[in-house]
């Protein structure tokens, strides 16, 4: 139960307390000259970055959080998508796993912690990618290779339309201005980005072809699958977990059609978030 009666009250109190404490820091450093004061305040901010340890079946994972909303990663590690954790646990040793829309790296970290599979993580949002890299460094997971690129229907320079820009934010779309339901994005920032099709990633850049793909980008899943036409037909690709919108949508139907045509069938589903569902497709 929230300490202050409900989540809204608790958030409001937390906001007031944070402002009060920030004022204390401002007052305590007011004696210094401008550059010294700025240096002190930034040092204090760095020392207050939060580190949380999550104990898993493969060992401990450390999450470094620099934004309040990024705390969802360690706080909801086991409760948010238990079906995704179980899916990763079922990979055969030696498998190659692509995490498309890795965000701050929850599932890339978990897969990498296994130690017996190869992981490629793709996250085009610069703030989330920085957080992903910080988490990989904190856990010394050199086995996980992370790339700040957007997977897309074709290889080109473009724009990542971001509804929010804090580390761990969601609802960002490469070269698209609507989300997975077809609703218009409220765009806060437009970030130049490199888009690469999955087929080009393998055929032109020699990326290891995946045995398992997690596809969770909140918007351009259909475009990414179109850019993976040859990959989807490769016998070595065994499963694809796609986060879809809850309920019937045009994009859900398009995703299902593309995967069924490539020889997959929806095997199971589970809650992906408040308004999303994870569907696991297998051959």
Protein described:
The chain has helices spanning 7-28, 34-47, 72-75, 82-89, 106-114, 126-139, 198-203, 221-226, 229-232, 250-261, and strands at residues 50-56, 59-65, 96-100, 118-122, 144-147, 150-151, 156-162, 172-174, 189-196, 212-215, 239-245, 265-271, 276-282. It has 10 helices and 13 strands. With 283 residues, the protein is an alpha/beta fold. Strands 5-4-3-10-11-13-12 form a 7-stranded mixed sheet, sandwiched between helices. Strands 6-9-7-8 form a 4-stranded mixed sheet. It has a two-stranded antiparallel ribbon with strand order 1-2. 35% of the residues lie in helices and 26% in strands. Helix 4 runs parallel beside helix 5 (106-114). The protein is globular and about 65 Å long.
Care to give the gist of this entry?
Helix content is 35%, strand content 26%. The protein has ten helices and 13 strands.
Distance separating the two termini: 43 Å
Strand order of the largest sheet: 5-4-3-10-11-13-12
Strand content: 25-35%
Radius of gyration: 20 Å
- Which shape, going by the Cα principal axes? globular
Low-confidence stretches: none
Measured as a percent range, the helix fraction is 25-40%
For the report, how would you describe the main beta sheet? Answer: 7 strands, mixed
Give the total of beta strands. Answer: 13
Element order: H for helix, E for strand: HHEEHHEHEHEEEEEHEHHEHEE
**What's the number of helices?**
10
Given the helix and strand composition, which structural class is it? alpha/beta
Indicate the mean pLDDT. 94
